[in-house]
Amino acid sequence: MNDPLAGLDDIDWARLRHAYGSAADVPGQLRGLRGSPAERERALGDLYGNIFHQGSRYEATAPAVPFLLALLADPATPDRGDLTYLLVGIAIGFDESFLPAGVDIAGWRAEVDRMRAADPAEEERKLDAWVAEAADEAERRSREWRRSLMDFRDNLMFAEAELAAYDAVRAGTSVFRELLVQDDPGLRASGAYLLAWFPEEAATSIPALRSLLAAETVAPIAANALVALGLLADHEAAPLLREQLAGEDPLLRWAAAIALARIGSTDQDVIGELATAAASPPEQGTLQVAYCEGDLRGYAARTLAAMIDPPSGTLSHVLDGLARTSEIAAFPMTAAALQMAFGPAQSPAARAPSFAELTKAQRQTVQVLADLDTKTWQWVNFIEIIEAWGLPRDRDEFRTYARL
């Protein structure tokens, strides 16, 4: 068996940078993935922290990927399933950023090309002009703060590092397809999940996913594969998806509805299944669906909210589900409910209408949000979602606004 880390020391890691500076520590961390359980845990945590820090990718990220792929391909590597989720993160960051639509890789590549061709000085002037065009003083201050965090050259550096990392992981799709035939259910599940993010490889990934589905008996694995077919825009899979949508397994019905909505089939059967899941998602066992870290309710709500004209009555199901959530689980539900009730998010300085001016659906949404627990209202992420629709950021002020 070839050494999966052969050539590791041929790279000048000290010259490359990650989140904490020099990447000279990366070779040791990659080697640690073959060590004792404690060493493996520490090495994996360190790699998450430095080459994938809070979703960011760096100069050293892409060069580390071939070694991660080689380790994943080697059956002698312990805990291979852990590597699959690190690789997904390296490729796309956090998956909710690409759901429910999937990866628009053509648009991604075009944007990076645009940035490469742009004049940095002109881009900086555009940002300054954007601040100057603010409608009022409050919006100007908001834009000034956001402008202080923007630097075109830094943005370009990160954009290039992210695309390089994506392409480095994409090179391993043959490895991911091999995971689909492993005895380990966890590897089959993560293999299907990995393939979902590389539409340029759909021609080979789709047949592999269909072969898996023909024999798979573990529902979460099959659910991962069904959703992957949708994200890869496999329109020819519609009959298979319809069969699963009409089946008895709630988890497979959820997955089929998600996939059908992704390929543009939004009839009442699909919408009804999504609405049901938004209110009360299917139960999962030890092996969970990988997308959105297993948040089936949030994924269903995102899918409904993304429809051009969310069907009448579905908001009530989303609000029912939102009322049953707390803290992190409330984030996607809140964004979905606000989008369905109020339309797209507004500018940072916008203010929502008075409560008396709200529609019935908007009032219901506001009142459900006002009743969420104080733990949820303590999250900055939650407050940012609320502010994106011009609503009060303080819970007591929000409850007064909602007339509670």
Considering the chains and any ligands shown, give keywords for the structure.
single chain, globular, two-stranded antiparallel ribbon, 404 residues, two-stranded antiparallel sheet, 22 helices, mainly alpha
Tell me the fraction of residues in β-strands, as a range.
Answer: under 5%
Largest beta sheet: strand ordering: 1-2
Which stretches are poorly predicted, pLDDT < 50 over at least 5 residues?
none
Termini gap: 67 Å
Average per-residue pLDDT, rounded, comes to 94
| Count of DSSP strands | 4
Helical segment count: 22
User: What is the share of helical residues?
Assistant: 55-70%
| H/E topology pattern | EEHHEEHHHHHHHHHHHHHHHHHHHH
Largest sheet descriptor: 2 strands, antiparallel
Radius of gyration, rounded? 23 Å
Specify the overall morphology. globular
Walk me through this protein's architecture.
With 404 residues, the protein is mainly alpha-helical. The protein contains 22 helices and four strands. The chain has a two-stranded antiparallel ribbon. The mean pLDDT is 94.
